[in-house]
Amino acid sequence: MVGQYRADSTWMKYHVGCAAMLFGHNGPVIIIAGGGIGGLTLGCALSRARIPFRIFERAAELRPLGAGIALSSNAFQALAYIGIEDQVWECGWELAVAEICDSQGRVLIRVQMRDFTAGGSRAMTRADLQQTLLGALGAKVETGRAVVGYQSTDARGRASCDAGR
Ligand SMILES: Cc1cc2nc3c(=O)[nH]c(=O)nc-3n(C[C@H](O)[C@H](O)[C@H](O)COP(=O)(O)OP(=O)(O)OC[C@H]3O[C@@H](n4cnc5c(N)ncnc54)[C@H](O)[C@@H]3O)c2cc1C
Fold first, then answer.
1. Domains of the chain, earliest start first
2. Is 38 near ligand 1, meaning CB less than 6 Å away?
3. Parallel, antiparallel, or unpaired for β 147-152 and 157-161?
4. What confidence tens digit (pLDDT) does each residue in 52-83 have?
């Protein structure tokens, strides 16, 4: 597929977070734009399905943005489907109670998460989630490379990247 991968930006703008099919001599390769938690999770799913993929991340290095994240049972259902539920579960802890506060810190609403979502929720740092997904991925993220365009026809698609910073 590398022969069809173009290091220029002549094709249409690519929408962040979408993947384009890139057909090469040995079958389709999925191009994932962005190594955020969405892109990494998609990579894990494709890896387990044995579908070739590449992840391009425009940032020079992967850094978790934000502090923490809470995942509920719907997320764990998806993670179970791709076989990484246990790893992600282990990197977090139970989120028993959630509070919504005003600007002075006074509690407006207090929710027992087990009442709110079936199976409860898990909280984790974004750094831990990212590292867990990277560990499960079994492939490298190609940093410093932005997807800048894609072209789609009925039968096939092509993604293009800049040479990257
Ligand atoms: C304050 C806040 C709190 C949140 N809390 C929760 C929560 O508790 N639970 C929850 O489930 N969700 C939460 N979310 C939502 C969650 O963070 C997002 O749904 C999730 O980060 C989306 O992941 P992503 O990989 O699609 O995008 P991102 O995490 O935004 O990652 C996108 C990546 O793509 C890269 N990129 C962008 N354009 C290109 C390009 N053209 N080529 C190559 N790379 C590119 C970027 O550099 C980035 O690394 C929260 C969001 C915010 C803002």
1. 2-161 (3.50.50.60)
2. yes
3. antiparallel
4. 999 999 999 988 777 899 998 889 999 999 99
Tell me whether residue 161 is exposed, middle or buried, using C-beta atoms within 10 angstroms of its C-beta: 0 to 12, 13 to 18, 19 or more: buried
- Distance, CA 12 to ligand 1 centroid (Å)? 22
Helix (H) or strand (E) holding 3: none
- Closest-CA residue to 93 (of 64, 113, 65, 115): 113
> What are the tens digits of pLDDT across the range 104-147?
999 999 988 888 777 778 999 999 999 999 999 988 999 999 99
pTM of the model: 0.80
| Tokens (6 digits) for 38 | 């969405």
- Residue 4 backbone dihedrals phi, psi, to 5 degrees: -95, 0
Contact 144, 58 (CB under 8 A): yes
Atom of ligand 1 nearest to the CA of 62: 49
Which string of DSSP letters, residue by residue, matches 13-41?
PPPTT-EEEEEETTEEEEEEE--SHHHHH
Query: Tell me, what amino acid is at 165?
Result: R
